[in-house]
Amino acid sequence: MIVVSSIAGNITPLLEIEAKGTVKDIMIDDKHLYIATDNGLVQVYDVENKKFIKEIALPKVKDFMGDMIPPKIFSVDIMDGRYMLLSDSGKGGYANLWIHENNETTQLMDHTLKKAVIKAKLVDKNHVLFGYLGDEAGLFDIEAKKEIYKVQLSPSKFSDFKLNEDKSKAVFSCESGVLNIIETKSGKTVKVLEGINLDNVYKVDFKQGIVSGAGQDRRGSLYDAQSGKGDFIEGSFLIYATGLSPSAKKVAFAMDEKNDISVYNISTKSRIALLKGQKSTLNTIIFKDEETLFSSSDDNVIMMWKLR
After folding, report:
1. What does the DSSP 8-state code read for residue 157?
2. pLDDT digit string (tens) for 5-38?
3. Which of 75, 149, 256, 288 has an alpha carbon 20 to 30 Å from 67's alpha carbon atom?
4. Cα gap 188→66, rounded to integer Å
5. How far apart are CA 202 and CA 193, in angstroms?
6. 160, 204 Cβ separation under 8 angstroms
7. At residue 111, what are phi and psi to the nearest 5 degrees?
C-alpha cells in the first residue's frame, strides 16, 4: 500500500494497493476489496484497516507448451461466504469454474465441458450468470452442476455484462455497440439499447435503472433502461471503462489517452472531477459509495480515490 498526496487542481489516488499479479477483476462490498489476478490468486483486502487478509490460490494449469503455469482468474464474486472464481483452463480457450467456501475450493466446471466463458457473476448463492465469447448468456446451477439456459444475444463478439442491484436483470455489451438487457432467471431479452454507440462497448454498468457504456467510438453512453432513451458524453480517446455511483447521479469514464478518469454529474453532463495517476490502460472502475472509487488497469496496482 502506498499513500499518495493530492495535487492542486486534480485528484490523485488516496491509496495504491499492489496485488501479486496483473489485476483481471475487482469487486467491493462494505469492508473488503476482492482482487482477481493473472497469477492464479484472489486476494482479499481490508479497506478499513488497509491490509490484505486472505488469499485463494488455484492449481496451476498446463499451457500449450506443456509448462505448468498459474491460471488467469477472469472473474471473482462472493455471496454469503461463498466465493465464485472463473479461470483459464489452459485448454483451447475454455474456462474452469470454482467455488471456495469454508476454506475449501471445489471445481464445478473444467475444459472438457468446452465452455468459452469470459465473465461470470453470482445471481444468488446457487446460480452463476455466464457471458460467453460469442455473446451468449448462460445461467449455471451450482448445486446441480449444469446449465439451466444458454441464449444467443447477438452475432457479435461479447465484451461485458453487469447485473443490476437486485440481480434480476443484466445488461450485455458486444462489438456492435448494441446493449441487451436480459432477465437473469430466464435469459429473455427485455430491452435493446441502441443508437448511441456505433462500435464495441468495452464495459458497462447498471444502477438505479441507468446504464452506462464505455465505447470504442469515444462515446460514454448513458441510457434509461426503462424507456431505452439515451445520450452520450464525448471523449478524446477510446473509452475502456465506466462506473456508476450507487445513486446513479455520477458516472465515471476513462476519457483520454492518459488513462485519466473523468467523473460527471449525470443530470448536467458537467465534469466534477478529474482523477489522475493511472499508469496503464484502465479495465475496471467501481464506486464504493458516492465519494469513493476504486480502479484497476493492466498492471498490478488498484487505486483508491476520494472525490472530497
Report:
1. P
2. 333 358 999 999 999 999 999 999 989 999 999 9
3. 75
4. 41
5. 15
6. yes
7. -65, -20
> Cβ atoms within 10 A of the Cβ of 190, count?
12
pLDDT at 243 over 70: yes
Per DSSP, what are the bridge partners of residue 97?
86, 109
- What number of H helices and E strands is found in the chain? 0, 31
- Only one residue has cell 483508491, namely 304
Split at pLDDT 50, 70, 90, the class of 160 is very high
Q: DSSP state, 11?
A: B
Reading the block at residue 219, the C-alpha cell is: 462515446
Enter the C-alpha cell of residue 301. Answer: 496496482
Neighbours of 19 (CB within 10 A): 24
The answer on pLDDT for 2 being more than 80 is no
- Sign of the Cα pseudo-torsion (234, 235, 240, 245, in order): negative
Structure confidence by residue, pLDDT tens digits, 126-155:
999 999 999 999 999 999 999 999 999 999
Q: Is pTM beyond 0.85 here? A: yes
CA dihedral 62, 65, 71, 75 (to 10 degrees): -120
DSSP per position, 49-103: TTEEEEEEEPPPEE-TTS-EEPPPEEEEEEETTEEEEEEE-SSTT-EEEEEEETT
Query: Quick check: 1 pLDDT over 80?
Result: no
DSSP one-letter code for 241: -
Measured distance between the N- and C-terminal CA atoms of the chain, rounded to whole angstroms? 21
Q: By the 8 A CB rule, do 96 and 105 touch?
A: no
260: β partners: none
Dihedrals phi, psi of 15, to nearest 5 degrees: -140, 150
Which residues, other chains included, contact 153 with Cβ-Cβ below 8 Å and sequence gap of 6+? 135, 136, 137, 172, 174, 180, 182, 189
